[in-house]
Batch of 2 targets.
Target 1
Amino acid sequence: MPKLSAQLGAGIEGFSGGLNYHIYPSVRSPYFSFQAWQQGFATEYKASYAGAMFVYRADKLLQAGLGAGYRFHKNPAIEYDSKFILMFNLGLYFPL
């Protein structure tokens, strides 16, 4: 099985996509990811980010990730203190 994978995600306030490099030859293994995130849609758009993340995956279901992103575009009506953002996630995964 290849060590590369891709992902797409969507939520109430945004969406994301990423290219992943798995440490072991299984989609159930931990991985490093280069991702892009967008916060908000249409009139609620806030900013877009790109960055790297490490995601740990347990043997079954649980995953946790930590990374950093750089803001490359923003809504001009919103002021931010920094171009960088700390990214994290905690959740369940369901491999096909």
Note: Residues 4-92 form one domain.
Target 2
Amino acid sequence: MTALNFCQDCGAALQPHMVGGEQRNHAYCRRCRLPRYDHPLVVVTCFVACGQRLLWVRRALPPQRGLWAIPGGYLEGGETLAAGAARELYEEAGIGLPPARLQLYMTGTITFINQVYVGFRASVASEDCAPGPESLACGFYSRDECPWDEVAYPQV
């Protein structure tokens, strides 16, 4: 987790301050007279199966460039969780599924990097996919075919 040092509105240095009846200090801007919370980022992913094979993408961007991952990324402002997962799936693997086809699969908190992780799942009838600008390659792999020694973020 990254500590906030300066106000995102006015640029003033932030001070630790107890807000209301909470039990911990938060960053506080004395100039704006507002607390500045260090909210976690929301990551959405989509586990897509075709039969017994799961979709993986080889990352084209850092961090973890060149390693394999489940399609996913940060939720953008104004998106629902499912819409964000559908967007990431299309951007990274060229698979266009409507958000209504995605089923909530799992949630988790990755506290050491201040992220909330939300995974969806879907099934497709065809292994048609194409890497987008954020992927070097993509494809469906069985459990035995998956390059487990080249997986990004094994802790997830």
Note: The chain has a mean pLDDT of 93.
